[in-house]
Amino acid sequence: MSELDELIARVLQPGFTGTTAPDWVRRRLADGLGSLILFGRNVETPEQVRALTDSLRAENPDVVIAIDEEAGDVTRLEHADGSSYPGNLALGALDDVRLTEAVLRAVGARARAAGVDLDYAPVADVNSEPRNPVIGARSFGADPELVARHVAAAVRGLHAAGVAACAKHFPGHGDTTVDSHFGLPTVPASRADLERVTLPPFRAAVAAGARAVMVAHLLIPDLDPDHPASVSSAVIGTLLRDSLAFEGLAVSDGIGMAAVRERYGLTGATVRALAAGIDLVCVDHVTTDADTAELEAAITAAVRDGSLPEARLVEAARRATEFAAWRREVREAFAESPSAGDPGDLGGIDGLAVARCAVRVLRSAPGALPLTQPPHVLEAALPRSLADRLTELLPGTTRAPLSEVSDATELPSERPLVIAVRGIQRTPEDVERVIALVKERPDAVVVELGVPHLDPGGAAWIATYGASKVSVRAAAEVLAGRR
């Protein structure tokens, strides 16, 4: 391989399909590919994923293996059944930074046991827009100071477990109504607004020792009217490097996301991100050998035509290499002390117990709770069914999709009615449907499994602050009177 090829291999982070490493991944690791990202499609069991990461490291001992393991609504290691821990919004509602640190230490210990180096967590976004379609309960909340102190605690917890934390999505994805997976959000904030609302958690993450920051695909006209943050030298260089004095690894959000891919193409977005100051390009969860070869060719061409200065590529590769060397030292230190990072020395973490503490009955009419017979449950689009958990506690519980019910006359009138939603304010159709149903069935109990912003009425309103496995279970216990 040429020196240029070696540099390029260090700044790309592809994903791949399958629970074992494909030949092309093994070959590229042997040739110096410096990083890979795992998704749910790569995970079956803890033993399998550890065997996978061991096999990757056998090809390249310095490979950095990353994953999105936020706990709560976003989990890869437990994608089949849902996270065993409540998410950030629940932790923010409890507002106990020691508990947040302990939970993220437990999450990190699980990731480390799987052979993961870099966890794309915590989410440092301040969810100031309740209709946000992509952040919501993934954020610790809407108060910048609260979010900042919990982000710092999360960084400490992950690092105590031997896993590198990565604060995301810089400079803040909380004030958007567009999901950057599907379009380009525009954030109309001024620099002063950013300093006041969105940047404090990132400053806290840097102060807590975060060695990586993920840059989002957001257009912030007051900073750069022409380029999304992930391809903007004003955002990465001036704001992240100069203002926040961040010297660690700048990672792009998935470069295959529509926010930049539709504008620049996969190769164009990758080259622009590197030129703007990104050190490690997170490619996509469906990357192929051909995609990787195309990216390598595009970066080579950009260096040769000057659109990507070679000095910038050298700088990116240096930061990626330094990060990998640090991670190898951490892995070796934890291997010599197997109990390091074990959450047991903090008293152990029972994720269900934490979720139970976080559940709030925000309003309840006399006699509305607990339910005295199996209910009929209407569910919006949920990652896990509340009705399934209720069936375990109240056999005979039935359910139907909320989207298929337009009139209360379609519902069994002799049964209690539970309506389960997830950030109802994000979907105007659901708001309209639920309010209409509650007017006809004022005895209905509404369970909010996301951000509890809009009270739709009814006899009771319950908030779980997330839709993880344990949060859904905790809600079912409240409904069934098993608490």
Distance between the termini: 63 Å
Mean pLDDT: 95
Side by side, the strands of the main sheet go 2-3-4-5-6-7
Number of helices: 16
CATH architecture of the largest domain: Alpha-Beta Barrel
User: Looking at the structure, what is the overall shape?
Assistant: globular
Radius of gyration: 23 Å
CATH superfamily of the largest domain: Glycoside hydrolase, family 3, N-terminal domain
CATH fold type of the largest domain: TIM Barrel
- Uncertain stretches of 5 or more adjacent residues: 343-347
Layout of secondary structure:
Layout: H1 3-10, E1 12-13, H2 23-30, E2 35-38, H3 46-59, E3 64-67, H4 88-94, H5 97-113, E4 118-119, H6 144-160, E5 164-170, H7 191-198, H8 200-207, E6 212-215, H9 233-243, E7 249-252, H10 258-276, E8 281-282, H11 289-305, H12 310-336, H13 351-358, E9 360-364, E10 376-379, H14 386-393, E11 398-401, E12 417-421, H15 428-440, E13 445-448, E14 460-463, H16 469-480
